[in-house]
């Protein structure tokens, strides 16, 4: 059963698109990531143009993030104050990212830059998380005490000015690193079509020392608002959001996120981190492999203007 996508200008299988949304939603609810780092490559693998995959991928992230964030809000594992700071910085970063996206598209380097960013970012972050999580799991199996990560205790960050207390996360840190993290996430959201959870989660855990159970809900909270803003900007500026494709992905994402949230509640912090690391590394490896495959069409002609 196929459906025509008006912006992408192609017909694709409805069940496959719905399934992509469900898979992304499941990982979103379980790991606290928006799922953009999954949905954009998956759409590209399904031969959807990268520009459409990026613009529409940011839109799909919203549905799964909202449902996941609400679930964490009910469990009181969401730091709203921290999330607000991240959202403000993320919106500013999104504005800068949309302009950069348009520039790369005009000079014909968008596809290559998107692929390279995914390989570099996913590979480095996934490797870092895999090493740390494997070490933590090994300590637990051997009965050795796990390294204590006390919330908010980071020497360099603790010296920065403009400190704010975030009670839910048990933090008393400068807002400078918080705003920097939010800005970077907003920038990447516009360029890569990601919610930024695959960067947000490690950054909050390893840089700010936010407790893992609070990180998931707070990450989804920020992703919801920044992704919504990015979608509007991409639609208005670059006309790269396919609403038909977005609705199918969102429908699958909402259902998948509910099951993912339940699955995530049954796993320990280090288990969640190693699972996220493995998913990230798998996507990086596949994207890296595709960079060396000879494309079916060596040249693509697009109308000028």
What's the domain count? 1
- Order of strands, widest sheet: 1-2
Nearest-integer average pLDDT:
75
- Given the structure, what is the number of helices? 11
Rg, alpha carbons:
19 Å
**Major beta sheet summary:** 2 strands, antiparallel
Decide which structural class fits the backbone: mainly alpha
Order of helices and strands: EEHHHHHHEEHHHHH
Please tell me what the overall shape is: globular
Q: What's the count of strands?
A: 4
Q: End-to-end span in angstroms?
A: 35 Å
Which spans of ≥5 residues are poorly predicted at pLDDT below 50? 301-305
| Helical coverage, percent range | over 70%
In what range is the share of β-strand residues?
A: 5-15%
Tell me what the structure shows:
- The protein has 305 residues and is mainly α.
- The strands form two sheets. It has a two-stranded antiparallel sheet. A two-stranded antiparallel sheet has the order 3-4.
- α4 crosses α7.
- It is globular.
- It has one domain.
- The C terminus is likely disordered.
Quick take:
The protein has 305 residues and is mainly α.
Note the main attributes of this structure.
two-stranded antiparallel ribbon, two-stranded antiparallel sheet, mainly alpha, 71% helix, 305 residues, 11 helices, disordered C terminus, single chain
């Amino acid at each position: 059963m196929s459906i025509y996508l008006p912006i992408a200008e192609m017909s694709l299988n409805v069940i496959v698109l719905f399934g992509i949304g469900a898979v992304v939603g499941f990982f979103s609810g379980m790991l606290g990531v928006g799922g953009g780092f999954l949905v954009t490559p998956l759409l590209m693998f399904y031969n959807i143009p990268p520009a459409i995959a990026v613009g529409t991928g940011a839109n799909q992230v919203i549905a799964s993030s909202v449902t996941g964030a609400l679930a964490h809000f009910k469990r009181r594992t969401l730091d709203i104050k921290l999330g607000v700071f991240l959202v403000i910085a993320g919106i500013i970063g999104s504005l800068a990212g949309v302009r950069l996206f348009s520039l790369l598209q005009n000079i014909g380097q968008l596809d290559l830059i998107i692929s390279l960013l995914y390989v570099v970012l996913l590979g480095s972050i996934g490797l870092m998380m895999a090493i740390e999580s494997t070490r933590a799991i090994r300590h637990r199996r051997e009965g050795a005490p796990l390294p204590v990560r006390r919330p908010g205790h980071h020497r360099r960050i603790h010296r920065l000015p403009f400190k704010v207390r975030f009670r839910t996360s048990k933090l008393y840190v400068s807002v400078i690193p918080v705003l920097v993290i939010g800005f970077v996430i907003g920038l990447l959201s516009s360029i890569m079509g990601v919610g930024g959870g695959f960067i947000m989660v490690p950054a909050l855990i390893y840089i700010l020392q936010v407790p893992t159970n609070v990180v998931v809900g707070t990450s989804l909270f920020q992703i919801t608002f920044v992704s919504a803003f990015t979608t509007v900007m991409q639609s208005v500026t670059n006309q790269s959001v396919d609403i038909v494709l977005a609705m199918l992905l969102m429908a699958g994402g909402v259902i998948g996120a509910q099951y993912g949230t339940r699955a995530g509640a049954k796993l320990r912090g280090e288990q969640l981190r190693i699972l996220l690391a493995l998913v990230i590394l798998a996507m990086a490896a596949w994207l890296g492999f595709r960079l060396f495959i000879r494309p079916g069409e060596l040249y693509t002609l697009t109308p000028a203007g």
